[in-house]
Design goal:
9 strands; single chain; 48% helix
Length: 461
């Protein structure tokens, strides 16, 4: 998961529509084949309402919610706190580099009533953004009219966080393209009938809250079309993930790279594995490593790429699915690459962190769920990789600064904003907003990792 922050603070401390903060977090959504097909965009905006309330007209702040909804758009009326928050969120989606972190996939955005009535929402491309409607949203004729109007402009709607049908669900169902059902909270006895009826009505079904392979398989059997949760990053007891090269070949190459090998040693190891050679030749001829002519020999490819880039490429390739799919659509590789890059960016902002610490942070991130590939014990796999004790302690026990950063990126992936804020106390001078911006950069970096060498080398400040 990546996050994005938009920040505009006034020098005087005053708060208005252009001076509110919003942060966003992305959570992967997979299709029935287990490939990425979108991201949910989670919004963090507690400061928006607090700051808006502190500076709002007292007469406006005291208006009851129902009256506020009815009169909020009245000409001449100052915007309510919720409307200010909505404007800041939409501006963040438009002006922030959200789409870079989405890596070409559509975004499912948590949407409030105020956001729907803000005309700026129509600046979001309809083909790239779907609006999620809360089951607690107040539904009246005015809202239905607005949804119909936006639907006419090709915007799509998703009923979010459904556990069982209620009045809001019934009123919004005709306008929804997709229904998101929390598989962990919905009554199990209700699910077969509910999903059958919704499928018959032509609705796309999205299962959320999937944290284990068994949950994913249950949702598949029920006929769900999309799946949200980190089940794909968990170790499996019965099966292991297919990888794009033999596991022993990748491990042998990683062990060799750890010992500062010669070009001749690397060439000999790579020649044993045609799949690895194919990937390396592609990497060496990418635009980011262009040397003025086409690389045609393995030795030239090694020299053009360099051992540092080969090491990073091999680490990421460990997570690549064995099926012939674009790496930007591979959820596990994208998660590993984003996590590793985020940790590297974050540690570089901490006092007294150098190149060695940055390398250790990247390794900690990239190998933190290697058991999802190999199955079995995470500890035993880490021992095979001969990782240093601080890295292993960070992954296994969350010890040290590396362990703290690993807990931080996990909080980002889950959109656990309160936990992230608490961790920032130990990560001074880093703030939630700065970490959010790093998450954006990490997600964008991961999205181009297979298309050019730029995705496999550090982006220096």
């Amino acid at each position: 998961m990546s996050t994005i922050a938009v920040e505009n603070r006034s020098r005087t401390g005053a708060t208005d529509e252009a001076q509110l903060n919003a942060s966003f977090a992305r959570q992967p959504i997979l299709n029935r084949d287990g490939m990425l097909c979108g991201y949910e965009v989670k919004v963090r905006a507690p400061e928006l309402l607090a700051e808006a309330l502190s500076d709002a007209d007292p007469d406006i702040a005291d208006i009851p919610e129902e009256e506020e909804q009815a009169s909020g758009d009245r000409p001449g009326r100052a915007p309510t706190p919720a409307q200010r928050a909505a404007s800041a969120i939409i501006r963040g989606l438009i002006e922030g580099n959200v789409r870079g972190a989405l890596t070409g996939h559509p975004a499912y955005v948590d949407t409030s009533r105020e956001m729907l009535f803000d005309d700026a929402i129509q600046r979001l491309p309809a083909e790239r953004f779907l609006f999620e409607l809360s089951p607690n949203m107040a539904v009246d004729e005015e809202l239905i009219a607005r949804i119909i109007q936006l639907h006419g402009r090709r915007y799509r709607f998703v009923l979010d966080d459904v556990t069982q049908p209620n009045e809001t669900f019934a009123k919004l169902l005709p306008y929804a393209e997709a229904i998101k059902i929390d598989l962990m909270r919905a009554p199990a006895a209700l699910l077969p009938k509910l999903t059958s009826v919704l499928k018959s009505a032509g609705k796309l079904l999205i299962a959320s809250g999937l944290d284990a392979q068994a949950d994913f398989e249950t949702a598949q059997e029920l006929g769900f079309d999309r799946f949200q949760g980190y089940f794909f990053a968990r170790a499996q007891t019965s099966t292991t993930r297919r990888v794009s090269a033999p596991r022993h070949a990748l491990l042998n190459l990683l062990q060799l790279l750890a010992g500062d090998p010669t070009v001749a040693q690397l060439e000999a190891e790579l020649k044993l594995n045609p799949v690895l050679v194919m990937h390396l030749m592609k990497l060496a001829n990418s635009s980011g490593l262009a040397v003025g002519h086409k690389v045609t020999t393995l030795r030239d490819a090694i020299n053009a790429t360099g051992t540092d880039r080969i090491a990073r490429w091999t680490q990421l390739l460990l997570y690549a699915d064995g099926r012939k799919v674009a790496l930007e659509d591979d959820p596990l590789l994208q998660l590993a690459a984003t996590r590793a890059r985020f940790m590297e960016l974050a540690i570089e902002r901490l006092p007294e962190a150098g190149r060695d610490e940055a390398d250790a942070a990247f390794l900690t991130g990239v190998f933190s769920f290697v058991d999802a590939v190999f199955g079995g014990s995470l500890e035993s796999t880490l021992n095979v990789l001969t990782l240093s004790r601080p890295i292993q302690a960070a992954i296994l026990q969350r010890e040290g600064v590396l362990g703290l950063l690993l807990s931080t990126v996990e909080a980002l992936e889950n959109g656990a904003w309160d936990e992230l804020a608490a961790l920032c106390v130990q990560l001074a001078p880093l703030t939630v907003e700065e970490l959010a911006q790093m998450g954006l950069a990490a997600g964008a970096w991961a999205g181009v990792a297979d298309r050019s060498a730029e995705g496999l080398e550090r982006i220096e400040d």
